[in-house]
Specification:
This protein is mainly alpha-helical. The protein has helices at residues 2-29, 43-52, 55-72, 76-79, 83-108, 113-150, 156-193, and strands at residues 33-34, 37-38. It has a single domain, classed as Arp2/3 complex 21 kDa subunit ARPC3 (Orthogonal Bundle), CATH 1.10.1760.20. Strand 1 and strand 2 form a beta hairpin. The relative contact order is 0.13.
Length: 196
């Protein structure tokens, strides 16, 4: 009984630490911009939490990420157009990114923990960006169409990928892939320290 409580306490402490890291990284990341949006440096701790704790922890960390995005004003352009749609998209993309990272890890770690960690690192930015793009189409298509025309883009899709999310997505994906060995080491460290 004590072993289980000790292990649960460690998970809770790790979740609290990762929550703080998500908040700090997003607050700092709000100042790092390429294009109209800040780079989401917080996707790595979200993936780490999903891998080391569980899938629901990834969802919680994604929720915190979304809350901080709304708090910092990083979504103000969209809040002015459709507040409800903005809140739904921002929270949903964070939560689903965390859940997807956990799901990818749980599925792929049956083959290899390294493959699971890489899968989590890839799933997180793909889902984060994918849900954002879907949200743009569902809630903001008329505005995005106007922005594309004003930018001289013939296609809304090319405006979204080139003008809005392209560089950010590849930066986030690359950062996650480069740091995925760190996730693997953390997993190994956790397994070595498990109380039996």
């Amino acid at each position: 009984m004590t072993t289980t409580k000790s292990f649960d306490t460690r998970k809770l402490v790790l979740l609290a630490l990762l929550t703080a890291i998500v908040i700090v990284l997003q607050l700092l990341g709000a100042f790092v911009r390429f294009g109209p949006f800040s780079i989401s440096l917080v996707l790595m701790p979200i993936a780490v939490g999903a891998v080391l704790i569980n899938t629901w922890a990834g969802g919680w960390l994604g929720f915190v990420f979304g809350g901080v995005v709304l708090f910092t004003g990083d979504a103000n352009v969209f809040l002015a157009i459709d507040p409800a749609g903005t809140i739904i998209v921002v929270i949903l993309k964070g939560v689903l990114a965390g859940l997807a990272a956990g799901g990818a890890y749980r599925l792929l770690s049956r083959i290899s923990k390294t493959l699971g960690a890489i899968g989590a690192a890839i799933a997180c930015p793909i889902i984060n960006t994918g849900v954002f793009i879907i949200g743009l189409y569902v809630f903001f298509l008329p505005t995005i169409t106007e922005w594309a025309a004003a930018a001289g883009m013939i296609s809304v899709m090319s405006f979204i990928f080139i003008g809005m999310v392209g560089f950010n997505f590849f930066f986030e994906l690359g950062a996650n892939l480069i740091l995925s060995p760190v996730i693997v080491r953390l997993i190994q460290f956790q397994q070595d320290k498990k109380v039996t």
